[in-house]
Amino acid sequence: MANTAQARKRARQSVARNKHNSSLRSMLRTSIKRVRQAIETGDQAQAAAVYQKASSVIDRVADKNIIHKNKAARHKSRLAAAIKALA
């Protein structure tokens, strides 16, 4: 258990941050799943529309250092390649 006032405050802050970061990470995973589901339907136009929204979410999460920028680029690249392969 935290003994000093500073340590107690840091513990409170880490709980709040963890909750916020978990929410963002969940939003990221959901948006990626939506793109994959759109790809499975085979409709390239719909998949591209969903990808645009997901791309925005991926960039936002990477800017906040929830995930590394290279991981964000990897996700976007693989999803874009999968959409392009539908043609």
Automatic annotation (TrEMBL):
GO terms of molecular function: small ribosomal subunit rRNA binding; structural constituent of ribosome
Keywords, sorted A to Z: Ribonucleoprotein, Ribosomal protein, RNA-binding, rRNA-binding
Compositionally skewed regions (Basic residues) per UniProt: 7-22
Lineage: superkingdom: Bacteria
Annotated segments matching region Disordered: 1-26
Gene Ontology terms: biological process: translation
General function of this protein: Binds directly to 16S ribosomal RNA.
PANTHER family associated with the record: 30S RIBOSOMAL PROTEIN S20, SMALL RIBOSOMAL SUBUNIT PROTEIN BS20C
Entry similarity comment: Belongs to the bacterial ribosomal protein bS20 family.
Protein known as: Small ribosomal subunit protein bS20
